[in-house]
Design brief:
Layout: H1 2-21, H2 29-34, H3 38-121, H4 123-128, H5 135-154, H6 174-232, H7 239-254, H8 260-312
Helix pairs in contact: 1-3, 3-5, 3-6, 5-6, 6-7, 7-8
């Protein structure tokens, strides 16, 4: 029969709807049985068919909307996680760059201070060497020391880069995190410009240090020839003073002039020169005293001979005025009456 077959199709469609969206209040058999006209039953079947179609459509629409929201939420969450990782990586690079640049600046500052201390610390020893070294070379060395201090004072060292501190960031907002990444990248560009200034300052420092060290090396090299001239100018000294001078020169040439041991060697050399000169003065004075003693002895002997000759001629010798020191009286002429 047509009616029973239509009723069976309606029941099967209602079952499919219940599987998709859950069973709704289905028509009771009693309501269906009250329709006695076949035309009325067909209209009722068509209404149920449209209701089924609409129910299935609404279920599909609802399911699609939920899926879209879920996918959007998942994609947004993934994007935020990605940009947060990118921000953290950029921050790590910036921190490493900043620490590296600041280490270079600190090292440069320390090197500059060391070189300045070397030049300043040599002022006293160089002053003490005045008169114990070649005058022209000593003057040029002092000029190089003064020039070095002026050059070092003009070297500009970049200031330390301020450490990075993360600002407040809304990690729920892609725009906020993106802005933070841009700020970190801009800071990285600024930090990357600093090494150029460090290289310029380092180059000036290296050049000045080489020039100053060259001047000091030339001064030290001049000590040996000057000491040789001092020894040559002291021919009467004892040998031990010549040996002491030679040892002092070797100590100066082998020492570091910027270390306490080098200053000690320089002062030892000065003391050796003073001792050499003093012994030469002593030797000269002793030789002069010896010559004077010989002259006095010869004068006394000549006087004695004159007196003896006068007595032998039968007349007493005439008195002779005493000779002043260093000017003995001339011997008497035996032909005088």
């Amino acid at each position: 029969d047509a009616a029973p077959r239509g009723e069976r199709r309606s029941e099967a469609e209602a079952a499919r709807v219940r599987l998709l969206v859950g069973a709704r209040a289905e028509p009771s058999e009693q309501q269906g049985l009250t329709v006695t006209s076949p035309r009325t039953r067909r209209r009722a079947h068509r209404l149920r068919d449209w209701a089924s179609v609409l129910s299935v459509g609404m279920a599909v629409i609802a399911l699609g909307a939920v899926t879209t929201i879920a996918l959007y939420s998942l994609s947004t969450s993934s994007a935020v996680a990605d940009v947060r990782i990118a921000l953290e990586n950029a921050e790590a690079v910036l921190v490493d760059e900043t620490e590296s640049v600041n280490r270079a600046i600190t090292t440069l500052d320390a090197s500059l201070a060391t070189q300045r201390a070397r030049a300043e610390g040599l002022a006293g020893p160089l002053t003490e060497m005045d008169g114990y070294s070649d005058g022209a070379i000593h003057l040029s060395t002092e000029s190089a020391r003064s020039t070095s201090l002026n050059v070092l004072g003009e070297i500009e060292v970049p200031g330390l880069v301020q450490g990075y501190r993360r600002p407040e960031i809304d990690f729920r907002s892609l725009a906020s995190v993106g802005t933070a990444i841009d700020a970190v990248n801009a800071r990285s560009i600024d930090v990357a410009d600093v090494p150029a200034g460090i290289e310029v300052a380092q180059g000036l420092l290296d050049a000045e240090r080489a020039s100053f060290d060259s001047a000091i090396a030339a001064f030290i090299a001049s000590i040996g020839p000057y000491a040789a001239s001092e020894i040559a100018a002291a021919p009467d000294v004892e040998e031990s003073f010549r040996v002491a001078m030679a040892e002092a020169v070797v100590a100066v040439e082998a020492s570091n002039p910027f270390a306490p041991s080098g200053v000690k060697a320089w002062r030892g050399y000065v003391a050796a020169v003073d001792a050499l000169r003093a012994d030469q003065v002593r030797a000269v004075e002793e030789a002069a005293a010896a010559r004077l003693a010989v002259q006095r002895l010869e004068a006394a002997r000549a006087e004695q001979e004159r007196r003896e000759q006068s007595w032998n001629q039968g007349r007493p010798p005439e008195p002779v005025a005493p000779a002043s020191p260093g000017h003995p009286a001339p011997p008497a002429d035996p032909a005088d009456p």
